Recover the amino acids of this structure.
């Protein structure tokens, strides 16, 4: 089925807007690809260095351009549960490559930090910038010019967007993303959230809190809630970078290993040395990016991707805007209820039909572009499958379920959980912002209340503990943008604000910072642009001003007479302390040149 006319209209507008930058990008990709496999361009000394540590058979293969060589970019470290399984992958990939008549080398490692570890800590101020560092680190690995395709091993919040930017920068090379999968289900996410709120109220101690957290985050694999990490996996599958059905298979299982080996074989098959050359930069186009946004809306995905998708698209010469994202939200229904938008986790989502069912439903009504290229071939329809293994232990792909195995987790396009997507854009005299509404109760979609001003999240938490916030209010937390302090997530606010909301108060958050991809219970207008440190109007708000956060009309405003508002001075604060400790001094140059949130908050574009 052809794409819905409304989606086609938005896509055509995106194509027209992107023409100058996209055409220049494609020209660069084709010129690089036209030079052919690049080991032939290396001097003998260069090449000898490149395979010095290889075994005899791999050296022989790499001495010429007869056999393809895969560059592995890995985000492995064994502190992150999501990335610990990657320890085994290089050996598995090398073996699978040799069996298929190719070679694979680890081209480089990239940093992978965990926002769950750094929440509320100084290190969180490095988190967003790590995305661009990851892109640059991957670029260094691939710059050796030894590779015919790249395999990207990454899962979590900034890692996949950074790797995607690198894949587009090296768009003349085919790129296959290889997931590691979610950890098995532990303590239910709603129970974990309940214990967090009890701790915030002082009703349970640290020992009980740590026990609950440890039961929730208990083994190898991605955290099981539907935050940024699992939104990444959804995106890579719906945009065609994963093999069909690969996203949510648990680590260290026969099927997971089989999918990793299949990814290796597929990467070898789509190099310029074969008959299915699929350079990543040409594979991904405006339709693929629109599909990614649609998947985000249909699943109630992470707000962080209103930053990441914009930056990822720009790396391919595509100029996605918040307006595009907002208009697509009005077209795409919400089909998934996964925590924090429901009680299920991603394992339940996968068992209910998962990505295959979701893609099949969207395609059935023209709510995705089917006429795209993927690493698997032509068209998105082959992704509308259910994954498994046959009696012989081989991967088996069956047609996707026609009906959800659990209607409380996955709905149909004819009877969605809500008729529009999970994200909404806001604008008004405070600036532009993003709000996630898929987990917010409808009676909280509009909040109008006096402002209470804070310049860091700890100040709000202290005020909550002191009993100073038992009222209706809009918390304005400013000087949290990329130029101020790297735009950290403010997820530690969630328990306190959640408690106040549960007590019956009408509360909301307005900030130029970020919230966790797992947040959503309390209405939060985030990513406010321009940010306070860049002279944005959010710095004009005064204590007690009436602030309106309206996710229905898409409004974010201070109810102050226009003449007074325009003549108010903006507040400034001393940001010196943001520049030191836990490596923050190394990122001064990033803070100085970071772009606005609406353009991806990047130092690269």
């Amino acid at each position: 089925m052809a794409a819905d006319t409304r989606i086609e209209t938005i896509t055509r507008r995106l194509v027209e807007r992107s023409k100058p930058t996209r055409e220049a990008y494609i020209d660069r990709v084709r010129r690089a690809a036209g030079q052919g496999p690049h080991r032939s361009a290396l001097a003998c000394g260069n090449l000898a260095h490149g395979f010095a540590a290889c075994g005899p058979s791999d050296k022989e293969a790499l001495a010429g351009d007869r056999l393809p060589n895969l560059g592995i970019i890995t985000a492995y470290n064994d502190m992150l549960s999501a990335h610990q399984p990657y320890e085994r992958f290089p050996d598995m990939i090398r073996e699978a490559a040799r069996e298929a008549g190719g070679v694979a080398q680890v081209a480089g490692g990239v940093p992978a930090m965990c926002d769950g570890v750094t929440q509320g800590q100084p290190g969180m101020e490095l988190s967003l910038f790590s995305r661009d560092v990851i892109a640059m680190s991957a670029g260094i690995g691939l710059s050796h010019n030894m590779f015919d395709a790249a395999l990207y091993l990454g899962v979590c919040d900034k890692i996949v967007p950074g790797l995607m930017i690198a894949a587009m920068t090296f768009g003349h090379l085919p790129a296959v993303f290889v997931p590691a999968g979610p950890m098995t289900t532990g303590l239910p996410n709603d129970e974990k959230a309940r214990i967090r709120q009890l701790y915030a109220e002082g009703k349970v101690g640290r020992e009980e809190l740590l026990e609950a957290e440890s039961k929730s985050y208990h083994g190898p694999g991605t955290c099981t809630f539907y935050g940024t990490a699992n939104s990444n996996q959804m995106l890579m599958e719906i945009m065609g970078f994963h093999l069909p059905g690969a996203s949510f298979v648990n680590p260290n299982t026969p099927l997971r290993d089989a999918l990793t080996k299949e990814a290796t074989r597929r990467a070898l098959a789509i190099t310029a040395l074969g008959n299915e050359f699929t350079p990543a930069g040409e594979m991904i186009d405006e339709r693929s990016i629109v599909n990614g946004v649609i998947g985000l809306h249909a699943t109630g995905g992470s707000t962080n991707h209103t930053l990441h998708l914009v930056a990822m698209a720009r790396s391919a010469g595509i100029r996605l805007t918040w307006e595009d994202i907002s208009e697509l939200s009005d077209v795409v229904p919400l089909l998934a209820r996964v925590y924090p938008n429901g009680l299920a986790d991603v394992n339940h989502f996968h068992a209910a039909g998962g990505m295959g069912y979701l893609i099949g439903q969207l395609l059935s009504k023209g709510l995705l572009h089917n006429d795209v290229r993927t690493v698997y071939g032509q068209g998105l329809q082959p992704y509308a499958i259910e994954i498994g293994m046959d009696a012989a232990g081989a991967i088996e792909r069956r047609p996707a379920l026609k009906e959800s195995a659990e209607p409380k987790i996955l709905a149909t396009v004819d009877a969605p959980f809500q008729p529009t997507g999970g994200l909404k854009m806001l604008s008004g005299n405070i600036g532009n912002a993003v709000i996630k509404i898929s987990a917010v109760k409808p009676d909280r979609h509009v909040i109008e209340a006096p402002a209470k001003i804070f310049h860091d999240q700890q100040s709000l938490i202290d005020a909550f503990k002191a009993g100073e916030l038992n009222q209706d209010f809009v918390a304005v937390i400013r000087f949290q943008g990329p130029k101020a302090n790297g735009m950290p997530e403010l997820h530690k606010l969630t328990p306190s604000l959640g408690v106040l909301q549960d007590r019956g108060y009408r509360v909301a958050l307005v900030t130029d910072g970020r919230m966790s991809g797992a947040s959503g219970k309390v209405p939060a207008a985030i990513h406010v642009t321009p940010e306070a440190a860049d002279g944005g109007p959010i710095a004009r708000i005064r204590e007690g001003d009436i602030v309106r956060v309206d996710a229905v009309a898409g409004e974010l405003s201070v109810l102050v007479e226009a003449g007074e508002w325009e003549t108010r001075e903006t507040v400034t604060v001393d940001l010196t302390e943001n520049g030191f400790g836990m490596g923050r001094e190394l990122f001064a140059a990033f803070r100085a040149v970071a772009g606005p949130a609406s353009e991806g908050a990047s130092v690269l574009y």
User: Anything to note?
Assistant: The chain has a mean pLDDT of 93. Residues 12 and 125 are 37 Å apart (CA to CA). The two ends are 35 Å apart (CA to CA).
